[in-house]
TrEMBL record:
Family stated for the protein in its record: Belongs to the tRNA methyltransferase O family.
The name this protein goes by in its record: tRNA (Adenine(37)-N6)-methyltransferase
PROSITE patterns, alphabetized: TSAA_1, TSAA_2
Statement: the UniProt record of this protein carries the keyword S-adenosyl-L-methionine: yes
GO MF term list: methyltransferase activity
Highest taxon of the lineage: Bacteria
Species: Neisseria subflava
Keywords: Methyltransferase, S-adenosyl-L-methionine, Transferase
BP-aspect Gene Ontology terms: methylation
Gene3D superfamilies attached to this UniProt entry: YaeB-like
Pfam families listed in its UniProt record: TrmO_C, TrmO_N
Length: 224
């Protein structure tokens, strides 16, 4: 038996490309997204949702649909050197390319269309959303559960700005978004090339930076 899934909403995100997106939700608190529901959904569809602090977002990894999937993948947390079964990872290269993120619910606009704003996001701009559910702590929080090969929050990079970047022209929110995203070290796990310049398209900016000895230096900031 086959099934089809129709997206119910579209994500508007500051992340305009796959490179630089936080690898897990909640790691970049400043990453706020807008989930815009399709026209057939009215304010009735979100009645009561405003009383919850967090929501589960089910979505499609649309940017990798043509890349297929594999039985085993190389998780970044293992340095990209060791393989694990795809179902033991959060890899986007899955048989059905479905993702699940727990995001902080910030606010809801019940106009036409209905818009749901969440923070701590790890979603690419244009991501199709297929379901939204409230997070219920007393049944879903398991703080003592084993987490396999994923132990603790990953170590973050320090981030500094070269004087030539004119970072003072950024808003506080924009600066936090860029710094928190780079601090997650978006490089492939196997890559450590201090002289390499990385480019991230985020919000309305193209950001260029280098990484050396656990420190990222932003060297250029350009308005897109």
């Amino acid at each position: 038996m086959s099934y089809s899934i129709t997206p119910i909403a579209t994500v508007h995100s500051p992340y305009k490309q796959k490179f630089g997106i936080a690898r897990q939700p909640g790691l970049v608190p400043a990453a706020e997204i807008c989930i815009e529901l399709s026209p057939e959904f009215t304010a009735d569809s979100v009645r009561g949702l405003e009383d919850f602090d967090y929501v589960w977002i089910s979505f499609i990894f649309h940017a990798v649909l043509d890349e297929g999937w594999a039985q085993m993948v190389r998780p970044p947390r293992l340095g990209g050197k060791q393989k694990m079964g795809v179902f033991a990872t959060r890899s986007p290269h899955r048989p059905n390319h479905l993702g699940l993120s727990l995001l902080k619910l910030e606010r809801i606009e019940t106009g036409k269309p209905v818009r749901i704003y969440c923070s701590g996001a790890d979603l690419l701009d244009g991501t199709p959303v297929v379901d939204i559910k409230p997070y219920i702590p007393f049944v879903e929080s398991k703080p003592d559960a084993s987490s396999g090969f994923v132990s603790g929050k990953p170590e973050e990079l320090s981030v500094v700005w070269a004087e030539s970047t004119l970072a003072e022209h950024l808003s506080t929110e924009e600066k936090h978004l860029i710094e928190q995203s780079i601090a997650q070290d978006p490089r492939p796990a196997y890559q450590d090339i201090p002289e390499r310049i990385y480019v991230m398209n985020i919000a309305d900016y193209e950001v260029q930076f280098r990484i050396e000895n656990k420190c990222a230096t932003v060297i250029k900031l350009s308005k897109i």
